[in-house]
Amino acid sequence: MTQRILITAGEPSGDLHAAHIVTALRTRLPTVEIEAVGGQHTERAGATLRRSIEGLAAMGLVEAIDKLPTHYRLLKALLRDFRAGRYDLVIVVDYPGFHLRVAEAAKACGVPVLWYIAPQLWAWWPGRAARLARAVDRLAVILPFESEFFAKAGVEATYVGHPLSDRVAVPSRAEAREHFGLEPGRRMLALFPGSRAGEIHRLWPAYRDAARQLLASGACTDVVVAATAWGTYPGAEGMRLVRDESTFVLAAADAALAKSGTTTLEAALAGVPMVVAYRVNPVTYALARRLVTVEWVSLVNLIAGRQVVPELLQGEATAARLAATIAPLLDRSSAACQEQLAGFALVRERVGGPGASDRVAALAAELLAA
Description:
Elements: E1 4-8, H1 12-28, E2 33-38, H2 40-45, E3 48-52, H3 68-83, E4 89-93, H4 96-108, E5 113-116, H5 129-135, E6 138-141, H6 146-152, E7 157-159, H7 173-179, E8 188-192, H8 197-217, E9 222-227, E10 240-243, H9 246-252, E11 255-258, H10 262-270, E12 274-278, H11 282-291, H12 299-304, E13 311-313, H13 319-326, H14 335-351, H15 356-369
Parallel strand pairs: 1-2, 1-4, 2-3, 4-5, 5-6, 6-7, 8-9, 8-11, 9-10, 11-12, 12-13
């Protein structure tokens, strides 16, 4: 009988990670059928979509409330599949709030569960690790310190490396700057105000105004915005909006202003100095302050175990503060810039080399053979 795997993602970044897993699975297990709750990347990789992720994603505790009815309907549909024995393995990718319930539902029906990109319980409610241990069979973690944390909580966790190390065809700095027509001596500031509507709404005004100040002072000569295909960026006159070419934007930049998240690690691996600035709904932030158990929000600082990049959050993320903090980073000879670059070397060493997707596929093969 043909075995069948369900792989689920909840947002665009997870869809991309899931797609790499699908590709690795099709190589390692060519006879296995793969179905997905995913998006265009997962489908292009060869999975059969059971449900699109469009409309699922939300950022923040308050913002997620609106998505509850959609999540509930999807969970009920998946539970019917689990009870019917449709799947031999479930792989959930990131998106912890919803996927913990998916994992619990699958496990209750006797379907083994592999979780890729672990929920950050070391930052939010470490006590919930016991619940995760009951819901999964294996955990594939992407940060080097996570395997020890989850092992202490009774979860069988394997460090597979970070998926960013698997990226191919990343343009060189020279190629990217030529792509944007940047002549030698010009200083380019890259803005990464997020990919979700709420993020852009909260971050763009401060990012934009900081960039204006830096252009006016001569600290930079060019500003390029890593824009989404659908986002609106009022007041961007004098700046270049580049849609869906974030790797080129990052490769060409002298420094970056970025939201917290994967972008910060991507910038560190590319050797681009940065300032991290983020805002969420005030109620979400008030709740988070009571729950968060780590000192930093950026992956760069978390992996390094110290502050490598400045973090300006909520009320600190003003245009004036952003401009003042990022200005010295636009000069590669400055002490602030050199200190960051030294920290990035440590981060690259700890992240390790490529092969994360293949290692996840190997774990999946083990569970199917068990």
